[in-house]
Specification:
Number of strands: 7
Oligomer: single chain
Distance between the termini: 59 Å
Structural class: alpha/beta
Number of helices: 9
Strand order of the largest sheet: 3-2-1-4-5-6-7
Strand content: 5-15%
Largest sheet: 7 strands, parallel
Length: 277
C-alpha cells in the first residue's frame, strides 16, 4: 500500500509509554497506517528499539525520553515533536504504572502518589500542552488508555484504580468542553494484557493474598486489539461518540451503528444508575 493511500497519511501521532508492550503495539499500528509517530517513554533503549522496528517496516518515527509528570519536560518535548514531525493530530495517553500496589494503609505514601501522578497527572500535562494547539488548528483527537478496574473496587491496587477512574472522568469532561471545537476525546480499555507491569501486579497480588488466583491466559487480550482500536479512533469514524469509553471486547462496528442511541441514552460512560425505592 502506498503511503498516500493509507488512512492516516499526513498525520502525526504522539504515543506515551510506547517503548514496549501495549504502547509499542499502538505506535507500530499507527505507523503502519501512515502516521508519523512520536515514540515517548522514560527509557532511551526502549524508545529507540520501537523506532527501529517502525522504520524497518517502512514507517516514520522519532524517539523522545520524557517524564510525563513534569509539565516543563512535557511542554518542551511537544515543541520538539512538532518541530521535527509536524503538528500533532493524535495524542494517545498510554503511559501508566502499577506503583502503590498493596492494601492502602500498608502502601508507601510516595509510591502511591507517584502511581496517581503517572496515571493521571501525566495525561493532564499532555492534554494541557496539546489542546490549545489543537484548538488553534481546529483539529485533533485524544485517546486516553483507561481500564475496567476504574469501575470496580480493587483492594490491592487503589492507586491504579483511583487514578484510572479519574482519567475516565477527565476524558468525558474534556470531551464536553472540546465538543464545540470539533476535537473528540475517547477513553479505552485494552483489557488485561500480559505486559511486564501486569505480571508484576499479579505477582504482588499473589504475595499479599494467598487466595489470589491470578489471571488465566484465556482471559488475556493481545495488545494488537488495543492498537487496532486506536487506529480506528484516529481515523475519525467514531467522532460522533466523543467522550465515550470503549473496551477492546466491544463490537465496535455495532457501536458505531448504534451511535444515536448511545448518545441519546448517555451510554458507554462512567455514570451512576438511577435508584428508586
Amino acid at each position: 500500500m502506498e503511503r498516500k493511500q493509507m488512512p492516516l497519511s499526513n498525520t502525526v501521532s504522539v504515543v506515551t509509554g510506547s517503548g514496549r508492550g501495549i504502547g509499542r503495539a499502538m505506535a507500530t499500528a499507527l505507523a503502519q497506517s501512515g502516521s508519523a509517530v512520536a515514540v515517548l517513554a522514560r527509557t532511551r533503549p526502549e524508545v529507540d528499539e520501537t523506532v527501529a522496528l517502525i522504520e524497518s517496516e517502512g514507517g516514520r518515527a522519532a524517539a523522545w525520553t520524557v517524564d510525563v509528570t513534569n509539565a516543563t519536560n512535557v511542554e518542551s518535548t511537544i515543541t520538539a515533536i512538532e518541530e521535527k514531525l509536524g503538528p500533532v493530530s493524535l495524542l494517545v495517553n498510554n503511559a501508566g504504572t502499577g506503583l502503590g500496589s498493596g492494601r492502602l494503609w500498608e502502601t508507601d505514601p510516595g509510591e502511591w502518589w507517584r502511581g496517581v501522578e503517572v496515571n493521571l497527572r501525566g495525561p493532564y500535562n499532555f492534554c494541557r500542552s496539546l489542546v490549545p494547539r489543537m484548538i488553534d488548528r481546529k483539529s485533533g483527537r485524544i485517546v486516553n488508555v483507561a481500564t475496567h478496574l476504574a469501575m470496580n473496587p480493587v483492594p490491592l491496587a487503589t492507586a491504579y484504580s483511583c487514578s484510572k477512574a479519574g482519567l475516565l472522568r477527565m476524558s468525558d469532561s474534556l470531551a464536553a468542553s472540546l465538543r464545540d471545537y470539533g476535537i473528540p476525546v475517547f477513553a479505552i480499555s485494552p483489557g488485561f494484557v500480559w505486559t511486564s507491569m501486569t505480571r508484576r501486579a499479579v505477582e504482588e497480588a499473589k504475595r499479599l493474598d494467598p487466595n489470589h488466583k491470578g489471571v488465566p491466559d484465556r482471559d488475556a487480550f493481545p495488545p494488537e486489539l488495543a492498537a487496532n482500536l486506536v487506529v480506528r479512533l484516529a481515523s475519525g469514524e467514531a467522532d460522533a461518540l466523543t467522550g465515550r469509553y470503549f473496551h477492546v471486547r466491544d463490537d465496535f462496528d455495532a457501536l458505531l451503528r448504534d451511535a444515536n442511541r448511545i448518545e441519546r441514552d448517555d451510554l458507554l460512560a462512567l455514570r451512576f444508575t438511577e435508584w428508586n425505592n
